Amino acid sequence: MTHSAKRAFGSQIQTLKVKTTRRTEWVNITSDVNRTVVASGAKSGVCYIYVPHTTAGITVNEGDDPDVARDMEAAFDRMVSRDAVYKHYEGNSDSHIKTSLVGTSQSVLIEGGHLHLGQWQSIFLCEFDGPRNREVKVKIQPDLAP
Amino acid sequence: MTHSAKRAFGSQIQTLKVKTTRRTEWVNITSDVNRTVVASGAKSGVCYIYVPHTTAGITVNEGDDPDVARDMEAAFDRMVSRDAVYKHYEGNSDSHIKTSLVGTSQSVLIEGGHLHLGQWQSIFLCEFDGPRNREVKVKIQPDLAP
Amino acid sequence: MTHSAKRAFGSQIQTLKVKTTRRTEWVNITSDVNRTVVASGAKSGVCYIYVPHTTAGITVNEGDDPDVARDMEAAFDRMVSRDAVYKHYEGNSDSHIKTSLVGTSQSVLIEGGHLHLGQWQSIFLCEFDGPRNREVKVKIQPDLAP
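Output (structure tokens, whole complex):
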């Protein structure tokens, strides 16, 4: 009974709002996601971080030196040219391609009531067609109590 | 008791069959996956979409304008040359590399008995070494009833 | 009661140790991960394979011919140049970028008490800044017994 209630609570999808300011911009959202985990009361389990968009993704990478995110933004812009010949009429095919390269979601483990990230790991919303108002969905599947 | 039975039902792996027709071809499989979710009876939870292949992957991206998928197919073929010098004797190393770029599985949230996708999101099987007969495994982990 | 205990057992995070020997090196860790699954006693469910690092990732790809991994290592080194102009002071921005291309985790289904991999699929730790001592976190969410 107790654990069912806990699971049901944890499983509600929470929505974070993120405002991006550049066309390509990786935004560190770790503290917002972790706050959602703590609020859920889940002690251990899995946290899904998911964007409902097709020109933005989610990745886990270094958040300690902000230059890493800047280097990654530039690298993705070099790897997938904005000016290649594309069929899609909106002119943002490069943004869609970059999104599939990083992926639209990540799963992070929960332990001790917090995100179980490595020392240098942060969670990033990867904006590839900003500036825009974006949503990030967070869902938690807690383990059952023993 | 009720919730255990529900979980056990939802957790059976379902297999979808997909026939591809070109060497590189992204096939929209959203409606097939969603039909599996609805049939499972799961109201909320997580849906895993997984390919058991090493030259095909799964991605979530725009399905509204089919030109986006065509642009992505061409971009992956440009990014990873088929004709570079490779060691693997089968001559499809480019297909393996593209597969690791998109990944072999995706997790999509379930809410209200359906896939909880964004407005423009679709699920694609990414064929990189077709034409072939492919399988897509779908597994659902429903939340427990409160 | 029985199934709660089973879930609680399965959900403990296990840590695998991997020693890499080259700067870019994909190491096949399938048998170690599978041993963890078998030891957990989980008959069906989902297995999360997660690295807590920011210059190494996880991918699922062909493990039968070791030349495929060698081709993939070379392809990633070609795709993301080590010598581009980067801001990050440590000089390993290319390693971070490659990590986000493959991702820091993979989810693999469990069926019949084992990893439910395709015939040619193996799980690889993708080292992009070795040689180093790496950790791989394995977490299992078993299905509940009916």
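Residues 1-10 of chain A have pLDDT under 50 and may be disordered.
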